[in-house]
Amino acid sequence: MTDSSTNMRLKLPITCFIMEIILIILFGVLVQYDHETDAKAWHKKNHSDYDNDFYYRYPSFQDVHVMIFVGFGFLMTFLQRYGFGSVGFNFLIAAMSLQWATLMQGFFHGMHEGKIHIGVESMINADFCTGSVLISFGAVLGKTSPVQLLVMAMFEVTLFAVNEFILLSLLGAKDAGGSMTIHTFGAYFGLMVTRVLYRPNLNKSKHRNGSVYHSDLFAMIGTLYLWMFWPSFNSAITAHGDDQHRTAMNTYYSLAACTLSTYAMSSLTAHDGKLDMVHIQNAALAGGVAVGTAGEMMLTPFGSMIVGFLAGIISVLGFKYLSPLLEEKLKIQDTCGIHNLHGMPGVLGAVVGAVTASVATTGVYGNGMIDVFPDVASGDIEASYQGVRQAISLAVTLGFALVGGLIVGFILKLPIFGTPPDTLCFEDSIYWEVPGDEQSHENQLTAVRTEESEKLNS
Amino acid sequence: MTDSSTNMRLKLPITCFIMEIILIILFGVLVQYDHETDAKAWHKKNHSDYDNDFYYRYPSFQDVHVMIFVGFGFLMTFLQRYGFGSVGFNFLIAAMSLQWATLMQGFFHGMHEGKIHIGVESMINADFCTGSVLISFGAVLGKTSPVQLLVMAMFEVTLFAVNEFILLSLLGAKDAGGSMTIHTFGAYFGLMVTRVLYRPNLNKSKHRNGSVYHSDLFAMIGTLYLWMFWPSFNSAITAHGDDQHRTAMNTYYSLAACTLSTYAMSSLTAHDGKLDMVHIQNAALAGGVAVGTAGEMMLTPFGSMIVGFLAGIISVLGFKYLSPLLEEKLKIQDTCGIHNLHGMPGVLGAVVGAVTASVATTGVYGNGMIDVFPDVASGDIEASYQGVRQAISLAVTLGFALVGGLIVGFILKLPIFGTPPDTLCFEDSIYWEVPGDEQSHENQLTAVRTEESEKLNS
Amino acid sequence: MTDSSTNMRLKLPITCFIMEIILIILFGVLVQYDHETDAKAWHKKNHSDYDNDFYYRYPSFQDVHVMIFVGFGFLMTFLQRYGFGSVGFNFLIAAMSLQWATLMQGFFHGMHEGKIHIGVESMINADFCTGSVLISFGAVLGKTSPVQLLVMAMFEVTLFAVNEFILLSLLGAKDAGGSMTIHTFGAYFGLMVTRVLYRPNLNKSKHRNGSVYHSDLFAMIGTLYLWMFWPSFNSAITAHGDDQHRTAMNTYYSLAACTLSTYAMSSLTAHDGKLDMVHIQNAALAGGVAVGTAGEMMLTPFGSMIVGFLAGIISVLGFKYLSPLLEEKLKIQDTCGIHNLHGMPGVLGAVVGAVTASVATTGVYGNGMIDVFPDVASGDIEASYQGVRQAISLAVTLGFALVGGLIVGFILKLPIFGTPPDTLCFEDSIYWEVPGDEQSHENQLTAVRTEESEKLNS
C-alpha cells in the first residue's frame, strides 16, 4: 500500500525539524513575556492579583483550545477510514500553526521595542488563527499528505495575519469572533486550494468517502464541543465586563435557534423525512459562525436568534443543493462541506456585523460605546461609516482568501510533497500504522472461506 | 423500515419551525439584557470589571453546559442501535428547552417592568431546567419520536418553572443543586410519562435494548463528564464566596464516596462478582444528586461522604432489584433507570437537605447564615421551620411531577406524533439516515453463505 | 472464564467497604472546612468575594480533574479488550486515592490545631497525588485485579505524601507541576512494581496486548485532554498573578514544540515512514511533563520550546528502542510505556528545574522572586544552592519510588488479591460483564461454519 512517493520517512521529519528549529530560533530572538507574565514587570506595579488578564481570559482560552484540538479534530473523524488522519493531522498542523501564528500576529500587532510580547490574549489569538487553518484543512481532508498540510498551514497563517492586520488595525473593523478573519478567510482559502488540487478521478476512493455508525458518534464529540464552547470563542477577546458577558449570551441563543432550524431543514429536505448526520454535525454550528462579528454588539438575543435561525437554514440547503453543484460545475471537492459551515455563514456574519454596526447609537450603547466602537465613541466617525468599514473588510477578506488560496494551491501541486494517489484518498493506512479491526473481520471471513473450500476440495 | 406514520418529513419541520418562530417572537417582545450584559446599564455605574457576574459564574456555566449536551447525551449512547437518537435528540430537545426555559423561568422570577432580564445566571437556570427534561427523556429513550419529545419538553419546562417558583419563591425552600426541582421532578415526571406510554409488546425490540462493547465506552464519556463537573453543577448558582467554594467541595467528596460504594455493590450483587457497566455508568453519579440540596449547607465533607456512600448503595440496589419489579408490577418501562439515578437519590437529597436545614445554628454558620438561610438569619423563622419548608417542597414536587407526567403522558399518546412501532424501538434507522457498519458485516456473512451454497449446489 | 481465585464477589466489596468506612471515620475525626469554605470563618473578615481562592483556582482544578478521569482513563483504552478495565479501574482507584490523599497530604502539611483544613488547593493537590497513582497503574495495566490496584493506591498515596513533604517542606524544593513528585515518583514506583510482578508467560495474552482502530480513537480523547489541559495542571497551584499566567504559557509552548518533534521522530524511526499511534498518543505529552518543575520559573517560551522539543525526541526513542530492552533484559513489562512518557521526561524536567533555579537572578525576577524562590528572595540562600536542593530532591524521589515500589510489589504478590492468570491478561471479561460485539461476530462466524459443515455432512 506504500510506494516511494508517499513514503514520509524523510519528508515529514525534515519538514517538522526545520520548521520547529526555525520557530525556536525566532522565539529566542524575538519573543518576550508581556508585563502580565513577566515576574519583574508585573511586580513593578502595585496590582491586585485579579487584575492579571489571566483570570479574565484563561477559562475562555481553555474552551477555545478544546474547540481547536478536540472540536475540529473529532468533527472530521466522521470518515470511516480516516480517523487517525483527521484527529492526528489536525493535532500536528494545529501545534505548528499556533507557534507560527504567535510570531506572525506578534509581528503585525504585538511589537514593543523590537520584541513580540505575549500572554493569554496572544495565545487565544494564535488559537484563533489556527482555527482558520483547520477550516481549510476540512476542504482538503483525506486528499493531502501531512507535508502538504504543514506547508499550507505556514502560508495560510502568514496571510491570515496580514489580512487580520489590515482589517483590525488599518480599516478599524470589529470582528471579535472572526466571522470574517477566521471563518470567511479560512473557508474561501481552503475552497480555492481544493479547487486547484482538483482530482478528476477521486471517485476511485469514493467507497471510503463516507461514515460508518461509530465514526458518526466520534464526530458528534467534535460537534458538541464546538457548539458548547462557541460562546467562549466569540467572547474570548472582547472587552472585559459587559462585552464578554453579552457576547457569550448572544452566541448561546444564536446556536440554540440554529439547532432547531437545522433539524427542521434536515428532515424537510430528505425524501423520507430522516435526519442526516452530516447536517446535524455541521449546520447546527452555523449559528456560532454567523454571530462572530455582531455577537459583541447590542444585537439582542432576539436578533441573535434570527441570525442563528437563518444560518441553520442556509447551511443545510448548502449541503443539500449547493455542494453537489460546486463539485460538478466548479470542480470544488469540499470534503467536510466547509462552504456550508464556515463560508456562507461567515459571509452572513460579516453582513450582519456591518448592518448592526451601522445602526449603533449612543442611546443604546451609552458609555459602553467606547468598548465596542471606539472610533464612533470618540466622534471620529459616524456609525454608518463603521458599517462601511465592516463591508469593505469582507471584500478584502474574500480577495485575500481567494488569491492566497490560488497561489498556495499551486505551490502544493509541486510533486515533492508525497500527496496520496487517487486510489488511496481517505485512507489512513497510507500514512499511519493501522492495527487490525475491519481487516481482522475480513481475515476471519477469508479463513472461513478457505476452510470450507478445502473441505469441498478434499 | 419506514411507514407513513413515523415519517417525520412534515411533522418534525413544522413542529420545529412553529416552536422556534414563537420563541423568537416572544424573545423580541419580552426579553432584555440585564444590567450586567447591557452596554449602557453596565457603564452607568462605576464598577470594576471583575464585579460582573460573568467572572463568578461563567466557568461553572460552561461545565453545566457540557453536562447537559455531552454528559446526558453520551450517557444514553449505551444502546447499541440508538446512538444517533441518544445524542441527537438530546441535542434537539435541549436546544429547544433552554430557550423556552429562559421565558418560563423569566416569567416567574425574572420580570422587571414587564421585561425578562437575562444574563449568565438565567443561562445556568435554563440549562438546569433543560437537565430536568433530559432526565425524563432517559425514561422514554428509544420509544418516542422527536416530535413527541419536543412536545413533552415544552410542557415539562412549563411545569418545572411553576414548581420551581412555588418552592423557591413561595415556600422559601433552598435547592441550589436541584435535588428536588431538577432530579426528583424530572424523574417522577418521566416515570409517569413512560407508565402512561406503557408498551406490552416492547419485548419485540428486546434484542436492541442493550449495549455493545464500544457503546459502553461512549456512555462512559457521558458518565465521567457528569461526574467531574457535578461540583460545578451544584455550586453554579449558590452565593459568591465561601458558598460556591463549599458546595463544590462537598459534592466532590460525596461523589468519591459514592463511587466506592457503587463498585462494591455492583460486584456484591452479581453472582460471579463481575462489575456491571450499567451500575458504574449510573449509580456512581447518585452522590451528586443526593447532595443537590444540602451541598451548599455546612454539611461537612464527612456528612457529604456518608450521603454519597448511601446513595451509591441505594442506586445499585434499585437497578438490581427494584427496576425489574417496577416494570413487571407497575408497568413502568424505564429505559435508562432514571428512578435509580435521579428518583431515589433525589428524594434522599431532599430529606438530607431538610434535616441539615433544621439543625442549622448561628454557632456554625456565623454571619454566613444570611447567604444560606436568609429567613433564619433575619430571625423571621426558626431553623427547624426551614426544615419543614424543605419537606413540604419535596411533597409538592412529587405531586407536580406525578400529576404533570400523567397529563402529559396522555397528550403524548395522541396518534399524531409518529411514535415508533413496538418492533422498531431502540432503532436509529427509523428516524435517521444510518450508514453501513454492522450491516456491512452481515452482508459479508450473507455473501460467504451464498457463495458456499452456490458451490454446493453446482 | 472465571475461576474462584479471580472471583471478586467478596474481595472487592470488602476492600471497598472497609476502605471507604475508614475514610469516612477519619474525615469525621480529622477534617474541617478551611477559612475559605467555612461559612463562619469566611464571614468573620471583611473580604471581597473575589478574594476567595475558589475564583483563582477552580477553573484550573476542573481542568486537572478532567485530566485525571478522562485524560488518564481514556489514554489507556487503546487496548482492544480492556476498555472497561482501563476507564473503569482508573475511575475506581482515582476516587479512592483522592480521598486518601486529602488525609495523607493534610497530615503532612495541612494541620491546624489538630485538624486538617481543606479547600480548592487541597482538592488540586489530592488530584495531583491521584495522578501519580494512575501513572503507576499504566505500568501494570491489564495484569492486576482491582483489589491489587486499590492496595497499591493506598500505599502509593502514603509514600507520595511523605516524599512530597520531604521535597517541598524539608528540602525547600519547587515543583509546582510535579516533574519529580508526580511523574518521576509515579513512573519509577510503577516500574518497580511491574518488575516484581514480572510474568514470564505474558506472551500467552499477547494477542490482546494491542489496539484496534476504534480503540486508538478512544485513546486519542485521553491524549488530547491531557495535552490541552496540561497548562492548567502545571499552573494550578503556583502563586496568583504572573506566576499562574507564566506557567500556563510556558507549558503551552513546550507542548507545541514537543508535538512536532514527536511526529518527526515517529516517522523517522519507522522503516516505511508511517506514523505510530503509540508515539502520538504518548510522546506528544512529554513536553508537559518536562516543564513541570521549571514551568513557573522564568524559563521563557524559547527555553520551554527547547525542553519540549527534546522531550518528544527522547520519548519516541524510548518507545522504539528502550522499552523492548527493558522488557527483555530487565524484565520490566511496562504496558503503557510510562517510562517514556513520565519516567525519562520527569527526570529531564527535574534537571531543567535544577539548572533554571540555579541561574535565577534578581535582575530577571525582580520583586517576583519572592513568589518563585522565597528563600533566595529573603537572602537565606544563593540561587545556586536552590539548584542543589532541586537536584537532591530528584535523588530522594528516585530512592523513594524504587524502594517503595519494591516493597509494595512484594505485597501485591500475596496470593490473596485475585490477580488474573497469564492467559487472561488484558481481558475485560474476567472482571466485567461484557456485552456481545466482537464475540457476536465470532458467533456469527461459528454459526456459518456449523451450518456449512452440516450441509456437507448431510
UniProtKB/TrEMBL annotation, chains A, B, C:
Superkingdom of source: Eukaryota
Record-level Gene Ontology MF annotations: ammonium channel activity
The keyword Transport is annotated on this UniProt entry: yes
InterPro entries: Ammonium/urea_transptr (IPR029020), NH4_transpt_AmtB-like_dom (IPR024041), RhesusRHD (IPR002229)
Subcellular location: Cell membrane
Membrane-topology annotation of the record: Multi-pass membrane protein
TM spans (from-to): 12-33, 64-84, 91-111, 123-142, 149-171, 177-198, 210-230, 302-322, 391-412
Domain Ammonium transporter AmtB-like: 44-414
Keyword entries, A-Z: Ammonia transport, Cell membrane, Glycoprotein, Membrane, Transmembrane, Transmembrane helix, Transport
Main location as per UniProt: membrane
Endoplasmic reticulum in keyword set: no
GO CC entries: plasma membrane
Annotated GO biological process: ammonium homeostasis
Protein family according to the UniProt entry: Belongs to the ammonium transporter (TC 2.A.49) family. Rh subfamily.
Chain's role: Functions as an ammonia transporter. May play a role in the elimination of ammonia in the gill.
Protein name: Ammonium transporter AmtB-like domain-containing protein
Organism expressing this protein natively: Channa striata (Snakehead murrel)
Higher taxonomy: Eukaryota, Metazoa, Chordata, Craniata, Vertebrata
